[in-house]
Amino acid sequence: MYPVNRNESFRADRYKVDPNAPASVLGYDPFNSSANISSIATSGHQASSINPYAQDPTGLSGASYYQNANAFQSSPSYHLYWPIGPQPTNLLAYQRTAHDFFIPDSLREDLQKKSEVARQVIPNSSLPPIEQYHSLVCLDTSQHKNQSLFGYPSWVYKAVSGKDGNTYTLRRLENFRLTNENAIRSVQPWKRILSGSVVTIHDAFTTRAFGDSSLILVTDYHPCSKSLAEEYFKNSPMQSRFHGRQAASGHIPEQVLWGYLVQIASALKAIHGMGLAARLITPSKVLLTSKNRVRLNACAIMDVVQFDSGRSLPELQADDLAQLGRLILCIANNSPTAHLNQQKSMDHITRAYPGRMKECIKWLLDPQPSPGTPTSPTAGGPIQKDIDNFLAGLTDQFASVFDSTLHAEDTLTNTLGRELESSRLVRLLVKLNFINERPELDASIPIPSGSTSNPSSSWAETGERYYLKLFRDYVFHQVDANGHPVTNLAHVLDCLNKLDAGSEEKIALISRDEQNVLVVSYRELKRGVESAFQDLIKAGRGSGR
Ligand SMILES: Nc1ncnc2c1ncn2[C@@H]1O[C@H](COP(=O)(O)OP(=O)(O)OP(=O)(O)O)[C@@H](O)[C@H]1O
């Protein structure tokens, strides 16, 4: 035992990232669709002196690096993007809708819900701020606290960090008394576990902010997630919190169960590989963060609260495998107590899952081979029960889960590709709207050195950039033969993409009084947009804004 000052807060780690470190993304040009991440400024001073609208925000790619760097350059054929697989089905033109151009509704809704839930705050909340964490919101759905897992009542809060603005989860163990400073230091190695199937741990400390002595564990926050217990063992009360995601019941597809097994096994590989043990793999402490995506959620806590338990690491790691077996048994039986009547539960598995599921669960639940038994298949005896051998036996399932993951990744990349188009076009639209119809700037545009044109006329209705206004009409204000407005999204996207690419294609722009026709290429239009925008920037600087 070590003497501990109970009024002092103990941290797992007092070393913090310098909050004053320069935000390297400051120099990113939001309007420059071809800006490259490598061109981002690296010092605060540089960042603040950068024109955020310039084609080259750093000014680094000047004449010393590239020939003709200052000359107008058109992009390659950005409007001729070819979709990456998986390919959409062969829809006819009239069957295509706005949905084909943008992120799928279901994904958009999901992301928006998550963002909304993450930003939720409770007005006049009585929960105190803790260290840098404020705006606490309790995530527990029941006041009934189960003390049997940690030995202390535990509460879970969502909170925002005042240091980095990110949202985190704080797990509080009420009335926890730290008797050994080393106990809280045992959280340190957990911070180095970077596994997609473990909820990342950031910090641990004690606090008296709640009026007692509490242990706080800071982890990642996964909005709209719920535990496997909430998903499979509870009914409708959760519905409102999870926005209509109902508690699942009935038969769980075998592929989903294998998916859980593979994910938790890969989490255990990372944990055991670092010389640690998960110690708590139970339905209420496995988080379902999106469809079929699970993460271990209570890691590190047992290492603190049972620091002096005296159990050896091999023993704890073997127990992880047994706990995983019990978890899958309970979920597959749709009952939190299925492990208590193992025989009956295994019979159900045999009936419901004719494949290798039973074999796998049995292997996990079987006690360790006794010391002295041969430990390798070549020695003709039972294989040693550890995570590596478990993974070796799961190879076929890994392959199929991996394949599903690749498909999901392809779909997301495809969606991202479509959104990339949207973000380029938004930047272009913003530029166009800055430029179009600004007669008030006629007199304030400075004459660029060497320019022969009269700047005051360049912004006039009949000036040099008149065709930009006509282009806006051409894109957005078209009418059909009967004078009815045409609202064709494909036409708008087609025109804007060609403008962004500076294509050589020519279009005929007709004046509003239908007396004049201007034939211009997208390349000329693009040049016009760029130079008008640069003039605007100069005018802005001149006025000190
Ligand atoms: N990292 C996290 N991100 C988002 N939500 C979380 C996170 N951790 C826990 N939650 C949610 O907080 C709630 C409380 O979690 P907790 O682990 O206490 O489960 P519980 O069902 O209350 O279990 P117990 O009965 O053991 O207290 C659950 O609804 C869980 O989904």
Q: What structural keywords apply?
A:
single chain, 545 residues, alpha+beta, Transferase(Phosphotransferase), domain 1, Helix Hairpins, five-stranded antiparallel beta sheet, three-stranded antiparallel beta sheet, 15 helices, 36% helix, elongated, disordered N terminus, binds adenosine-5'-triphosphate, PAN3, coiled coil, zinc, nucleotide-binding
How would you sum up this structure, described in words?
This protein has 545 residues and is an alpha+beta fold. It has 2 domains: 112-393, Orthogonal Bundle (Transferase(Phosphotransferase), domain 1); 418-542, Helix Hairpins, CATH 1.10.287. Helices cover 36% and strands 10% of the residues. The protein has 15 helices and 10 strands. It has helices spanning 44-48, 105-119, 181-185, 228-233, 254-273, 301-305, 313-333, 342-352, 357-365, 387-393, 395-435, 455-458, 466-476, 489-501, 522-542, and strands at residues 133-138, 154-161, 167-173, 201-207, 214-220, 226-227, 286-290, 293-296, 506-510, 517-521. Strands 1-2-3-5-4 form a 5-stranded antiparallel beta sheet, with no helix packed on it. It has a 3-stranded antiparallel beta sheet with strand order 6-7-8. Strands 9-10 form a two-stranded antiparallel sheet. A hairpin with a 5-residue loop joins strand 2 and strand 3. Helix 5 (254-273) runs antiparallel to helix 10 (387-393). Adenosine-5'-triphosphate is lined by residues 139-141, 145-146, 149, 154, 156, 169, 199, 219-222, 225-227, 229-230, 284-285, 287, 297.
